[in-house]
Amino acid sequence: MIFGYFYGYLESLGYSLANALSGSCEFSIMNTAFNTTGSSITSISIALYNYGDKQCGISGIYILNESTAYQVAVSSNCITNPLARLGPGQVLMLNYSNLNIPYNTNYLIKVVSCDGFTAEEGLGQ
After folding, report:
1. How far apart are CA 101 and CA 80, in angstroms?
2. I want to staple 60 with a disulfide (CB 3.0 to 4.6 A). Which of 74, 82, 105, 118 is the partner?
3. Coil, strand or helix: which one is 27?
4. Mean pLDDT computed over 105-118
């Protein structure tokens, strides 16, 4: 268990160091859209734009409010298999369905890159 913790830490540290030397991963959430059924969010679409100068691997998508974080998708190995790869100047649409998240108007969408860069946007804004 201790080895797993340190291995994950060293993996992310190495990835961050490589990114620091080769440029920056920077992106923004252009827009989000979602569908509801009853009082649950059942699907979500997120448009991302990479305004940085290097490719970004996406490691996690979360829906957050003041007290709860819902995990939409997370990469198990960001270096070899990120959720998506976003090239410089590229727009990418991420779509997730079969969700069952209680609907709340105060949610934020949080997208995290493999090197730790994050972007947040209000749900449906």
Report:
1. 29
2. 74
3. strand
4. 92
